[in-house]
From TrEMBL:
<dbReference type="GO" id="GO:0046081">
    <property type="term" value="P:dUTP catabolic process"/>
</dbReference>
<dbReference type="Pfam" id="PF03819">
    <property type="entry name" value="MazG"/>
</dbReference>
<dbReference type="InterPro" id="IPR048015">
    <property type="entry name" value="NTP-PPase_MazG-like_N"/>
</dbReference>
<feature type="domain" description="NTP pyrophosphohydrolase MazG-like">
    <location>
        <begin position="171"/>
        <end position="234"/>
    </location>
</feature>
<dbReference type="GO" id="GO:0047693">
    <property type="term" value="F:ATP diphosphatase activity"/>
</dbReference>
<comment type="similarity">
    <text>Belongs to the nucleoside triphosphate pyrophosphohydrolase family.</text>
</comment>
<dbReference type="GO" id="GO:0046047">
    <property type="term" value="P:TTP catabolic process"/>
</dbReference>
<feature type="domain" description="NTP pyrophosphohydrolase MazG-like">
    <location>
        <begin position="35"/>
        <end position="108"/>
    </location>
</feature>
<dbReference type="GO" id="GO:0046052">
    <property type="term" value="P:UTP catabolic process"/>
</dbReference>
<dbReference type="InterPro" id="IPR011551">
    <property type="entry name" value="NTP_PyrPHydrolase_MazG"/>
</dbReference>
<dbReference type="GO" id="GO:0006950">
    <property type="term" value="P:response to stress"/>
</dbReference>
<dbReference type="InterPro" id="IPR004518">
    <property type="entry name" value="MazG-like_dom"/>
</dbReference>
<dbReference type="GO" id="GO:0046061">
    <property type="term" value="P:dATP catabolic process"/>
</dbReference>
<protein>
    <recommendedName>
        <fullName>Nucleoside triphosphate pyrophosphohydrolase</fullName>
        <ecNumber>3.6.1.8</ecNumber>
    </recommendedName>
</protein>
<dbReference type="GO" id="GO:0046076">
    <property type="term" value="P:dTTP catabolic process"/>
</dbReference>
<dbReference type="InterPro" id="IPR048011">
    <property type="entry name" value="NTP-PPase_MazG-like_C"/>
</dbReference>
<dbReference type="GO" id="GO:0006203">
    <property type="term" value="P:dGTP catabolic process"/>
</dbReference>
Length: 267
């Protein structure tokens, strides 16, 4: 007899049925039955990054697929929560719907829509702070965020209560200071201090990006892409000479790297 799920119309109900079947103790998938919130969490993070990658590449077909994968992660977590008697997918949907209505009184309430985007962001943050209650300023900044992103969020939270450098010039001075302290730790050969000072330098650099109005995560992502692009030029040029990077040396590869830079500037 054909499985009734195969004949269900496309939509959220069919996806929920698929998820429930995967976790069915008698008919489900052994791998899915072994999973927990903790083991699935890395896949959830990975899918979010793949969504961002598809957007960055302007690949709409890929984005459609990746959004589906990310949606499936929400359904997966909700299914496990329902099995444990914690909450259901309907509860998840109701919670986020109510939250969006509450945080947009200028759309669903009586507040005026005559605000700038900056004012709306301030109102949004004020509402979130009220929802957090009497906790500390930095409470609620997820520890599982990528370190670069978490650094920026921590700094923004502190800045809201006045704990911030007044301008980018002073932050740049702090970056230079941290670089100097890292050099001192390196010269002293103090391994633990080197790691600490490097962390301070990275944190200060994120702060500088924030003051300059640059998204640090995006800036580093662009730098990664640039490195990949230029190194690909190095490899291609060496291949044209019948060699690989392993057969080359730093002087030759650095020359080809600079060639790649010049070509980009001309282009």
């Amino acid at each position: 007899m054909p499985d009734p799920i195969l004949d269900m119309p496309d939509g959220l109900d069919r996806l929920r049925a698929v998820m429930a079947r995967l976790r069915d103790p008698d008919r489900g998938c052994p791998w899915d039955l072994e999973q927990t919130f903790a083991t699935i969490a890395p896949y959830t993070i990975e899918e979010a990054y793949e969504v961002a990658d598809a957007i960055d590449r302007d690949a709409m077909d890929d984005l459609k697929a990746e959004l589906g994968d990310l949606l499936f992660q929400s359904v997966y977590h909700a299914q496990m929560a329902a099995e444990a008697g914690q909450f259901t997918l309907d509860d998840v949907i109701a919670t986020v719907t109510d939250k969006m209505i509450k945080r947009h009184p200028h759309v669903f309430g009586d507040e005026s829509r005559e605000k700038t985007a900056r004012q709306q962001i301030r109102d949004w943050e004020a509402t979130k702070a009220k929802e957090r209650g009497a906790g500390g300023v930095l409470d609620g900044v997820a520890k599982g965020l990528p370190a670069l992103m978490r650094a920026e969020k921590l700094q923004k939270r502190a800045a809201r209560v006045g704990f911030d450098w007044p301008d980018a010039a002073q932050v740049l001075e702090k970056v230079v200071e941290e670089a100097r302290e890292l050099a001192e730790a390196r010269d002293a050969g103090e391994t633990d201090r080197i790691a600490e000072e490097l962390g301070d330098l990275l944190f200060a650099t994120v702060n500088l990006a924030r003051h300059l109005g640059v998204d640090a995560e995006d800036a580093l992502r662009r730098a990664n892409a640039k490195f990949v692009r230029r190194f690909a030029h190095v490899e291609a040029a060496l291949n044209g000479r019948g060699r690989t990077p392993q057969d080359s040396d730093l002087t030759e590869m650095d020359g080809l790297w600079n060639e790649a830079k010049r070509l980009e500037w001309r282009g």
